[in-house]
Amino acid sequence: MLINTWLNQLHQSLLMSKHRQLLVLSGSEHWCWQQVDSLKTVYPDLLTLSNHPSVNFWPEHNHQLLGQEYSTVVFDVNSGLMPDKLATVAGTVKAGGLLVLLMPNFESYTKQADPVFARFQSANKPHQPISLFQTRLISQLKNNEQALIVSEHHARPTIPMYAATESTQYQEQQNLVADLSKFLTKPPIEAGENLQHSACLPQIMFRKVSAWQFVPIISRLLPLYINISSN
Fold first, then answer.
1. In a domain, 161, yes or no
2. Cα 147 to Cα 169: distance, rounded to the nearest angstrom
3. pLDDT of residue 30
4. 222 and 180 in one domain?
């Protein structure tokens, strides 16, 4: 069970370090949604993706999620494990925020048919009820020491302590945005620490910038973007 003291400590640790944290809530559906209610007391602006009746927000197209940022994103794996959608929402989490997965317990999930898996299977081959991506996800979560996994029938894990991020680490991104702002017809993008986030490039790409003006700057920005996305 998540309690406010534990959540507040986690929140403060992530804000100071500007670290994005994966939090897995593993248990019964009723228990998972109880934890989401607790999360809302600390992260009131969280985005929840689920076809659960209490939420019913499950965008059909991933582009509906682009260009936005949230302090916390809750992804209900029970609604369907779609890797592209999961990757998209992961990119909307702000520095110091949480990506939360709602899941059954790991043992039962590896035997549970995914509700969206059928659409990706060929009609000419025997139907496979279990996605190999489910097995792969569980394996990765179990072996990822940085993932926080909170299970219904186990004690809460220790909150990780990350080193604080120095603002000077973002100076190069700030310089790039300053250069781009000279060519923008709309108000310039705010040069803050969250520019290291992968949402920086799409935000710039959608501004009205002449191609010949954009080339020398984007050539500087892309190496940063690739390096950040791989971390």
1. no
2. 24
3. 93
4. yes
Determine contact, residues 94/69, Cβ cutoff 8 Å: yes
Model pLDDT for residues 48-81, shown as the tens digit of each residue: 999 888 888 887 788 888 888 889 999 999 988 8
Total number of residues shown for the chain? 231
Instruction: Name the residue range of residue 206's domain.
Output: 167-229
pLDDT, one tens digit per residue, over 74-99 is 999 998 888 888 888 898 898 889 99
Residue with tokens 């602006």: 45
Q: Around Cβ 77, how many Cβ atoms within 10 Å?
A: 23
Three-class SS of the chain: CCCHHHHHHHHHHHHHHCCCEEEEEECCHHHHHHHHHHHHHHCCCCEEEECCCCCCECCCCHHHHCCCCEEEEEEEHHHCCCHHHHHHHHCCEEEEEEEEEEECCHHHHCCCCCCCHHHHCCCCCCCCCCCHHHHHHHHHHHCCCCCEEEECCCCCCCCCCCCCCCHHHHHHHHHHHHHHHCCCCCCCCCCCHHHHCCCHHHHHHCCCCCHHHHHHHHHHHHHHHHHHHCC
Alpha-carbon dihedral angle through residues 59, 144, 10, 90, given to the nearest 10 degrees: -20
Distance in angstroms (rounded) separating the CA atoms of residues 66 and 202: 8
> Between helices 29-42 and 4-17, what is the axis angle to 10°?
60
**pTM of the full predicted structure?**
0.68
Asked if residue 221 is part of any domain, the answer here is yes
10 Å Cβ neighbour count for 58?
A: 16
Q: Average pLDDT in the 2-29 region?
A: 89
